[in-house]
Every structure is written in structure tokens, then in C-alpha cells.
Amino acid sequence: MSSHTAPAYTERTVPFVTDDGVELNLIHIRGDKTPDKGPVILVHGAGVRANIYRAPVETSIVDVLIREGYDVWLENWRGSIVFAPNLWTLDQVALYDHPKAVQTILAETGESRLKAIIHCQGSTSFMMSAIAGLVPEVTTIISNAVSLHPVVPDWSKFKLQYMVPLVRQMTQYLNPHWGVEAPGVVAKLISLLVNLTHHECNNAVCKQVSFTYGSGFPALWRHENLNEQTHEWLKEEFGAVPLRFFQQITRCVQRGHLVSFEDFPVLPKDYAAQEPLTEARFAFFSGEKNLCFLPQSQIQSFNYFNALRPDYHSLHLLPEYGHLDVFMGKNAAVDTFPLIIAELNKS
After folding, report:
1. pTM, rounded to two decimals
2. Does residue 252 fall inside a structural domain?
3. What is the pLDDT along the chain (347 residues), one digit of tens a residue?
4. What angle do the packed helices 185-197 and 204-213 form, to 10 degrees?
5. Strand 281-287 and strand 314-318: pairing?
6. Are residues 278 and 146 part of one domain?
7. Which of 184, 207, 242 is the last residue of a domain?
8. Do 118 and 170 lie in a common domain?
9. How far apart are CA 130 and CA 123, in angstroms?
């Protein structure tokens, strides 16, 4: 087991309220030296929290960004497990959460522009914000796993199409933490099902995560990429995710790209039907062994943006990585973070 001593940072929580009245927050992390490269916002995925970028590894992405001189801001949007479970959609997050988070950072720092690192459903929703022209101040966007074109394995398609409607009749949420504590009959039934079908490790939350979010054993990372501490730490980093979100992502997967779920006039109905209202440069990342969203997701999105503006955007396929291990892997500081930093430093 590797020992990990976190560097000494000062951090403060900066609350903000969205235009639809939801109380969210940003975690602002500073090191010893004053950052000279401007602010960067890190956006987490579904059913986790901002803390997901700070796994107990030798060097986290936060460590590297601070060392590089970036001003680091972690966003807790309405899907974060630090807040009470709610029936969020990607539309709500795109319209209300990310634009207000960006405005809050700019107000706090006095800067006029910032960069973003976005992952999974933080990435799809942030992509929606960008295409809709709601975050024009964001100049560079590092997107991991999925963005405009969600492509999933066949087993995931089956689960989305047939199992989600079934489970929705019993519960409004799925929660991988049921592996540790299963309150009620539905939670116990799902935990039993997971334990009968998943034998890849002894971590009940790890197994529930794979059941909830993809295909494979495990689905969101490769075990060989995680140190023991991280594998154990994950138990407390996953929480409730609404089935309503899975309804939306099912529609998007069936259409082959992001579509709206609710009827907000400000948001496009179809995100591939109009030219994106953003000048941001995108760097698309995917683990080649991602079993949550296939690498094809990011390849398609890169091809789409590259056709609109050739030789501006970039694509990085990471051979031995899956989904979240791109950030939490024990060797990510060597394998993936330098590529991310190089992209951030380009402009």
C-alpha cells in the first residue's frame, strides 16, 4: 500500500445560487505560490462530487495544476452527492449550474476568461452549456470520456432500454453506496442482484458502480490502474443518481448525440443540429478501454468539431485506461496529466 501525504493547501468553499434557486458551491484550492496562469474549473461526473479529482494517489490532477501555476476551482453542481438527491437533468445543469459557476469564478478572481476540465456527465452538460453559448468566457475545454456523442457498449444499451424503465417503477434513484448500506427492499434487491452477477473484487461499492454505470467488471476503471487506498476510498465517493438522468442519456444514445430532455427555450432541442456557439478549443480524451462510454464517443465528437474548424481541436486516446482512472490512476500523473497540462498551456 502506498502512503500518501497531501500537500498543504488552503481551501475555501464559495457558495453560489443558480437562477432557479438551487444552492451549490465551488471549492477553491490554493498552494503556496500565487497562481499566474489563470483559473481552471474542474467539473465532476454524475453521482459523485468535486472531491473525485483528489484521489489518494501520489500526485493528483489538483497537485499538478497548482504546481503548474493554475488557480484551481472544483465545482459541485446539482448532481453532486454533497447535496440532497434531486431529480436533475443535463438540461438543468447546462442552463443553470455551469454558467453560474463560471460567472462566480470570474467575479471572485477578477479574470475575464477561464479554462475547464470536464468529465462524464459534467462533460456532456458543460458541452451543452458551451454549444448553447452560455459559457463564452471559457477558452479551452479538456473533455474526458464523453461529450457530444455518447456511444455505449451493447450491454449498456440493453440496460438503458429495458432495465431502466423497470427499475424506475420501483425507485427514483440508484445508489452505489447501497453496497455498504442498503435501506429498504429495492436497495436490498439490487444489492443482491449485483452480488450475484459481479465477482471482480470484494468492494461492494466498486461492484455497484459497475452495475449502475456501464458494462464490464469493473466498468469505470481498470483495477490494475488503482492503488489499494483509492479502491477503498471510492466506497464513500459515490451516491444517489436519478433514473430521470438515465432516461435522458437513453434518448441521447438512441439519437447518437446530445438532445434536450426538458423544454427550455434557451437550449437547443438537438445539439448537433446547429453550429456550436463557442470559440473554445476542445481537447477530447478517452481511455481506449473505457467500458462506460466507448472511445468512439470522443472520436466522433473530435471529428465533428474538427470538420467545423480543422486543426484547432485535439484528440487523445489513452491505451491502458478506462473511464475515471484517467484521473485516479496510480500512474495517471505520468501517463495522462502531462497531456492535459500541455493542452491547457497551448493557449
Report:
1. 0.97
2. no
3. 444 556 789 999 999 999 999 999 999 999 999 999 999 999 999 999 999 999 999 999 999 999 999 999 999 999 999 999 999 999 999 999 999 999 999 999 999 999 999 999 999 999 999 999 999 999 999 999 999 999 999 999 999 999 999 999 999 999 999 999 999 999 999 999 999 999 999 999 999 999 999 998 999 999 999 999 999 999 999 999 999 999 999 999 999 999 999 999 999 999 999 999 999 999 999 999 999 999 999 999 999 999 999 999 999 999 999 999 999 999 999 999 999 999 999 97
4. 90
5. parallel
6. yes
7. 242
8. no
9. 10
Residue type, 104: T
Same-domain status, 165 and 289: no
DSSP state of 32: S
Pair (83, 169) in one structural domain:
no
In a domain, 1, yes or no: no
Give the closest residue to 243 by CA, choosing from 139, 151, 168: 168
- CA separation (Å) from 191 to 47, 135, 175, 211, 231? 17, 40, 10, 10, 19
Beta bridge partners of 284: 143, 315
Comparing CA positions, the residue from 319, 132, 96, 160 lying closest to residue 224 is 319
H/E run at residue 325: helix 325-328
Q: Which three cell numbers stand for residue 30?
A: 490554493
> Which residue type is seen at 178?
W
Give me the amino acid identity at 33.
Answer: K
Nearest to 239, CA basis, from 90, 75, 50, 53: 50
Cβ–Cβ < 8 Å for 109, 71: yes
Q: What is d(CA 302, CA 324) in angstroms, rounded to the nearest whole number?
A: 20
- Which residue is listed with cell 503556496? 32
Residue where a domain terminates, one of 219, 242, 265 = 242
In which domain, by residue range, is 139 found?
10-150+257-345
Q: Which three cell numbers stand for residue 288?
A: 481506449
272 backbone dihedrals φ, ψ, rounded to 5°: -105, 0
Question: 33 and 144, same structural domain?
Answer: yes
Look at residue 23 and tell me if it is in a domain: yes
* 341 in any annotated domain: yes
Distance CA 77, CA 334 (A): 29
